Amino acid sequence: MILIDGKKVAAELREELKQEVSELKAKHNKAPGLTVILIGDMVPSQIYVRMKEKAANEVGLKSEVIRYPEAVEEKAVLNKIEELNKDESVSGILVQLPLPKHIDKQKVIETIAPAKDVDGFHPINVGNLSSGYESTIPCTPLGCYLLIKKFEKNLSGKNAVVVGRSNLNGKPMTQLLLKENCTVTITHSKTKDLKGECLKADIIVAAVGIPELVKGDWVKKDTIVIDVGINKTDKGIVGDVAFDEVSKVAKAITPVPGGVGPMTIACLLKNTIECFKRLNSQN
Ligand code: NAP
Prior knowledge:
Layout: E1 2-3, H1 6-28, E2 33-39, H2 43-58, E3 62-68, H3 74-86, E4 92-95, H4 105-111, H5 123-131, H6 139-151, E5 159-163, H7 170-179, E6 183-187, H8 194-199, E7 203-206, E8 224-227, E9 231-233, E10 236-238, H9 243-246, E11 252-253, H10 260-279
Parallel strand pairs: 1-11, 2-3, 2-4, 5-6, 5-7, 7-8, 8-11
Antiparallel strand pairs: 9-10
NADP nicotinamide-adenine-dinucleotide phosphate binds at residues 140, 163-166, 168-170, 187-191, 194, 207-210, 228-231, 260-261, 264.
């Protein structure tokens, strides 16, 4: 079994991005800029935003965090996004989710200019991805995709099973694997025989949110297993895959932590740089 070391791959990617940022700065006389909007004081969101800000600074991006109290009016947030859409020093806008109940998430996502939507959640980016056009790809599935490709260059004809159909993970992951000519099965909570589906897979991507759902006898040997799950349990953080069992069978597997997680942040930086390049492609 090969352990797919997301921490190492992410560190290599960040190093490449650092170099690219320095070249872009020299060429355009300005750095790509990432602006994060953080609403309220939920601890996990605060931690994620701090990690994103630190990573952005490390590769040389211009980063800014705009903080609002929990009770901020929706209109104030939408106005700020409109302002950032027009601000030439901003290449990427991210609104940290989840949002307070009185703020309409979809309205917020749709107000971000698609060209600055570093999360890839805007319907224009979602549509472009599913049509096979250039788009910004959501950071976590992009990270999974890069890990799979690092390990296996040619995915054509492979059977891929994606467990979970969220807009954040499962659906964009499916599109990425389809684009690589995999035969993709997307499964969810109503799937009748999840074990049977997984047993047909050459590649499994699990994004469910149920600790250790995917068991050792659900996986055939020679399968690549990518575990997106981050679940807090009594024994610490575990993924959606029973690592101890599955790692005895699979050809390759990502650990939790240290697998997909570090790639998500690196891909946010990558997306910000891609947005900058597209916005400045005429110069
Ligand atoms: P989500 O929006 O809650 O979606 C979960 C999906 O799993 C749904 O499609 C659901 O099916 C499906 N599901 C639930 N129970 C199932 C079962 N018994 N069998 C098969 N499918 C089942 O979750 P998410 O946002 O995609 O997140 C999934 C996990 O990834 C979570 O642990 C989250 O913390 C983690 N995550 C990690 C990262 C990272 O950077 N590593 C980033 C984001 C999320 P239905 O559609 O039928 O309800």
